[in-house]
Write a structure and sequence with these properties.
The chain has two domains: 234 residues, Aldehyde Dehydrogenase, Chain A, domain 1 (3-Layer(aba) Sandwich), CATH 3.40.605; 192 residues, Aldehyde Dehydrogenase, Chain A, domain 2 (3-Layer(aba) Sandwich), CATH 3.40.309. β13, α13 and β14 form a beta-alpha-beta unit. The strands form three sheets. The protein has a seven-stranded mixed beta sheet with strand order 10-11-12-9-8-13-14, with helices on both faces. Strands 5-4-3-6-7-15 form a six-stranded mixed beta sheet, sandwiched between helices. The longest helix is centred in the N-terminal third of the chain and has 27 residues. α2 packs across α6 and α9 packs across α10. By secondary structure, the chain is of the alpha/beta class. 42% of the residues lie in helices and 16% in strands.
Length: 475
């Protein structure tokens, strides 16, 4: 159901939530056919409206490459749904667990049960994938779902609300529209689980709001994801994968490479290769349909401010395309690299979320690892090397939400891998089975055997009890 009256937000969304919760109470554990049908409905919602979705997102951005929308949103959303449909029966099976030897022949198992109503707060940068992705896990787990779409993507949000009404019953999925006040009221609802994707700053307020009801939360935030070039890895391939990953959606990706670390003496080589990649991928970058625009004037000005602040403090800006400057009229912001970027600069303190790329030289791999570890844990880390020992060192000595080796972004597209941050980059996981688990209650069940010796431990306690306890404690 769509709703965009901010003043009426709290009572209206509370009524929607109550309707979904009552439906969940009446059917607390949907069977496989019901869950499979809901996943099929979500698949049809996406598959049957690909062009409309791409067009709506393009309207919201001013210009979003329709090719990127299909590659980065439509395709992974459909793959996530298909993966869940293939594996749902096995996910739903009870898990057999080992009963303690002292309690045999009793049996132990784990049931996965729906939590009721799951809330999902969707950001503006990937409005389809970051709505549909969490919905897959929530629906697979048997929940009703309530989605708060972003006010920064009004066309896509309105379209998604209309499509949800078409493909789902009103007591299965509800879509809420509105501004930040609506989002705050949404976060205060007593959900079985709440998932938020967005900035770390807003994540704090969402978690505080959810705490009023002790609502468990999954926070998918962001931060400064580093990309490290190993000592002897080919620069051409490194620069290609970095610049493609950075330029997708004009850098407005939570797991985009935020800064790169290259061995001392190879900075100029990287800049030259980066320019080559940008020229090959985005000729006439201010006009090509393949390069997306910045979502709003406010974000465009923020990116300009990051570059200006860095240059005022001694950084050097290097244009990576032939464009003379960003175009405020179209909000096209060509990629730019920054060298000599210091820790005091804003660009090194906050998530960039745009096509600005600081380049940090390092002397030894241990120094690069220390540099990463001295900062908040990133949502993603990228390392390029062909030496297995060095790869293991980076994996073992750094802590991040996820890692792709010798490429960027691709760990998020693996439906059998959990996705989530750590520390300031997030809390909890979803995708695949981990998404099913996140939106389920894992209920522990012990089934006592008809033949058991528990009566031997009934009071009053005496000498026999003491002999048994000595035996048990010795193991």
């Amino acid at each position: 159901m769509g709703m965009n009256d901010t003043q009426a937000a709290a009572p209206a969304i509370a009524e929607i939530h109550a309707r979904l919760r009552e439906a969940a109470r009446c059917d607390p554990n949907p069977d496989w056919p019901v869950r499979a049908a809901r996943l099929a409905a979500l698949e049809s919602l996406v598959h049957d409206h690909i062009d409309e979705i791409a067009q709506a997102i393009g309207v919201d951005f001013g210009h979003r490459s329709a090719h990127e929308t299909r590659l980065l949103e439509i395709f992974p959303a459909l793959e996530a749904i298909r993966h869940a449909r293939r594996h749902l029966k096995s996910w739903m099976r009870d898990e057999r667990r080992s009963a303690s030897k002292w309690f045999l022949p009793g049996r132990a198992r784990v049931l996965h049960q729906p939590l009721g109503v799951v809330g999902i707060i969707v950001p503006w940068n990937y409005p389809l994938y970051l709505a549909a992705g969490p919905m897959v896990g929530a629906l697979a787990a048997g929940n009703r779902v309530m989605v708060k779409m972003s006010e920064y993507t009004p066309a896509m949000s309105a379209l998604f609300a209309r499509l949800a009404e078409k493909y789902f019953d009103a007591d299965e999925v509800a879509v809420v529209l509105g501004d930040a006040e609506v989002a705050q009221a949404f976060a205060r609802l007593p959900f079985g689980h709440l998932l938020f994707t967005g900035s770390t700053r807003v994540g704090y307020s969402v978690m505080r709001a959810a705490a009023e009801n002790l609502t468990p939360v999954t926070l998918e935030l962001g931060g400064k994801s580093p990309a490290i070039l190993g000592p002897d890895y080919p620069m051409a391939h490194f620069a290609e994968r970095i610049m493609v990953g950075k330029c997708f959606n004009a850098g407005q990706t939570c797991i985009a490479p935020d800064y790169v670390m290259v061995p001392e003496g190879r900075v100029e080589e990287f800049l030259a290769e980066a320019r080559r990649v940008v020229a090959a991928c985005y000729p006439d970058i201010l006009r090509t349909p393949d390069f997306s625009t910045i979502i709003s004037e406010r974000h465009f000005r923020r990116l300009e401010g990051l570059v200006a602040d860095a240059c005022a403090q001694g950084a050097v800006a290097h244009a990576l395309s032939d464009a003379a400057a960003p175009d405020a009229a179209t909000r096209r912001f060509p990629p730019v690299a920054l060298t000599a970027a210091g820790d005091a600069m804003q660009v090194m303190q906050e998530e960039i979320f745009g096509p600005i790329l600081p380049v940090v030289p390092y002397r030894t791999l241990d120094e690069a690892i220390r540099y990463v570890n001295a900062r908040p844990n990133p949502l993603a880390l990228y390392y390029f090397d062909r030496d297995g020992g060095r790869i293991d060192r980076v994996l073992e000595q750094t802590l991040s939400g996820g890692v792709t080796i010798n490429d960027t972004l691709l760990h998020i597209a693996q439906d059998d891998l959990p996705f989530g941050g750590v520390g300031e980059s997030g809390k909890g996981h979803y995708h695949g089975f981990e998404g099913f688990e996140t939106f389920s209650k894992k209920k522990a069940v012990f089934l006592q055997s008809r033949l058991n010796g528990m009566s031997l431990f009934n009071p009053p306690y005496g000498a026999l009890f003491e002999r048994f306890m000595k035996f048990l404690i010795r193991g």
